Amino acid sequence: MPHLTEMQWTRLRALLDEQDARIRRQLENLGASNTEGPQEGPLDEADLADQEMAGQTSGIMLNHYREELAKVEAARERMAQGQYGVCMDCGEPIPFLRLQAQPVAKRCLACQASRERRLA
C-alpha cells in the first residue's frame, strides 16, 4: 500500500472497525427481535401472514448483514496480504477518497462502473 500514508492507513482500519461493529450490532438486534416470543391468543390468517413475512424479512436481512461482514473480513485479509487498496481488475491503486467512502472496495471507480454496466 505504498500509495497510502500511515495516517490514511490508520483511518481506513478505523473505518473497517466501525463498520464491523455496526454490522455486529445490527445482527444482535436482528437476533433479539427474532426471539421476542410468540403472540398470545389465537392467530388469524392475517397474523400468520404477518409472522411469515416478518420471518422472511429477517432472513433476508440476516443474509445481507452476513454478506457485509464477510466483505469487511475480506478487506482485512487484503490488508494483511498487502493487497488492500489495489484494484483487483486493473491493478492500479484505489484512491484514498474512494476507500474512505467505501472501505471494502475491491475495485477502482472506473473498473467498478464497468463491472456494473456489464452486469446491468
From TrEMBL:
The keyword Metal-binding applies. It comes from the Bacteria. Keywords: Metal-binding, Zinc, Zinc-finger. The keyword Transmembrane helix does not apply. Residues 82-117 form the Zinc finger DksA/TraR C4-type domain. A zinc finger (dksA C4-type) spans 87-111. Signal peptide: none annotated. Pfam families: zf-dskA_traR (PF01258). GO terms for molecular function: zinc ion binding. PANTHER family: GENERAL STRESS PROTEIN 16O (PTHR33823:SF4), RNA POLYMERASE-BINDING TRANSCRIPTION FACTOR DKSA-RELATED (PTHR33823). This is TraR/DksA family transcriptional regulator. It comes from Ralstonia solanacearum (Pseudomonas solanacearum).
